[in-house]
Design brief:
single chain; alpha/beta; three-stranded parallel sheet
């Protein structure tokens, strides 16, 4: 059994981008999700770093059905269960915790652990993971390092979600790697724009992200 539902993985890959969001005020989550959708980004990750994150996730899951919403920074099995119960379609973590992976398998809940070394890739693969978060992508050396790191596992058909240090300037280079399912970007909806309710700026950023994905790989999916 793999740790990620195929349909969910395909929806993420079709989008090509995941808006990575840190949100304090759950009441802004619905407007945020609509701004992202209007710009062409149909997947978002609400990181569990603030007290309002789960409420924000539940707001989006309940009111914006066209948005594929997941939970990020899932560090424990209890957080995994809370994210699922709040309506998350998927969850990701910055690192590889076998206990959380095992819990996700038991729950039949789509989960991508974080990796940045060959040993972590192999440990995750051993547990059935086929979609992996590369974090922090810029620290390991960016797109070229990701290509080198993942080359020995290309025959396994693994897919990757690079996050950490992505920007409009380097997203296209990541997306050119056929092993990259989608890019995670905090630049699409930064906290300062959410706090200011600047939905037009977020929509514009989302449109830029969508344009990058559509230009680099218009016929891949």
């Amino acid at each position: 059994m793999t740790t990620f539902d195929q349909e969910t993985a395909e929806r993420i890959a079709q989008c090509g981008n995941i808006a990575v969001v840190v949100i304090d005020d759950a009441s802004k989550a619905i407007d945020l999700a609509h701004a992202l959708l209007h710009g062409g980004v149909t997947a978002m990750e609400l990181t569990l770093r603030t007290p309002g994150a789960l409420a924000a996730l539940e707001n989006v899951a309940s009111n914006v059905p066209d948005m594929l919403v997941g939970a990020g920074t899932v560090l424990t099995t209890s957080q995994l269960a809370e994210a699922r119960d709040a309506g998350a379609a998927f969850a990701v973590a910055p690192g590889f915790n076998p206990k959380v992976v095992a819990a996700a398998i038991e729950m039949r809940f789509s989960f991508a652990p974080g990796i940045m070394t060959p040993s972590e890739i192999e440990g995750a693969v051993e547990m059935g993971c086929r979609l992996l978060k590369i974090f922090p992508a810029n620290v390991i050396g960016g797109p070229q390092a990701l290509k080198t790191l993942t080359a020995p596992y290309a025959h396994l058909g693994l897919r990757y979600l690079p996050l950490g240090g992505l920007s409009p300037e380097n997203t296209a280079e990541y997306l050119r790697n056929p092993a990259v399912a989608a890019c995670g970007g905090s630049w699409i909806a930064p906290a300062k724009l959410i706090d200011a309710c600047d939905w037009e700026a977020i929509r514009a950023n989302a449109a830029k992200a969508a344009e990058l994905s559509n230009t680099v790989r218009p016929h891949r999916f």
